[in-house]
Design a protein that fits this description.
The protein is an alpha/beta fold. It has three helices and ten strands, in the order βαβαββββαββββ.
């Protein structure tokens, strides 16, 4: 089955504007949490931890943290759900150790897309076992499909229809992550 690029669903200008908006809102929400616990956001080393799900979220998280003028750290996690040339999730599988130092911190899980819910449900469950101070879920794309696992999002960039998409970190068989837009992938 040969695949080709289809239509642009979300152009780079819309992505940039929405990423900036999410970064500002997330910063404000986290600063409010830190103030509520008596911590100054400027002097809170390692209180805020981004947990991007690799590899798809790397472009999104990189652009978004540039919009967050606060101290934060990152602890990456690798989860696989679309092996090789698959366009259907095969279930989530942790591909590396989850960071074990998340207790008492304000955690923001960042992923590229929410579709079946497998990945975010797995990561959320494992992080909650560590008793974080707070846990927020942030995705670039929220695909409107029936889900096997319901996941509540705190921040979502865009809702998209049930189409396989690539670009801005999302791939097909390891390719197309570098595209600056979100583009459909079609059968040829």
């Amino acid at each position: 089955m040969v695949r080709r690029l289809g239509k642009v669903l979300i152009d780079r200008q819309r992505i940039h504007a929405r990423v900036r908006e999410i970064g500002r809102q997330l910063s404000q929400d986290l600063e409010n949490d830190l103030r509520a616990e008596g911590t100054d956001a400027a002097d809170s080393p390692d209180r805020v931890v981004m947990v991007p799900i690799l590899t798809g979220a790397i472009v999104f998280v990189a652009d978004r943290i540039r919009e967050m003028p606060m101290k934060l750290s990152m602890r990456m996690v690798t989860v696989s759900s679309y092996p090789g040339q698959s366009t259907m999730s095969r279930g989530a599988a942790l591909r590396g150790a989850l960071p074990q130092d998340l207790g008492g911190r304000h955690i923001v899980v960042v992923d590229d897309i929410l579709d079946s819910g497998h990945t975010l449900a797995l990561v959320k469950e494992l992080i909650l076992e560590q008793n974080p101070a707070s846990l927020r879920m942030c995705v670039l794309l929220d695909k409107k499909v029936p889900r096997k696992h319901e996941v509540t999002l705190n921040y979502a960039g865009f809702e998209i229809p049930d189409e396989f998409v690539v670009g801005y970190g999302l791939d097909y068989d390891g390719y197309y992550r570098n595209l600056p837009e979100i583009v459909t992938l079609e059968l040829e």
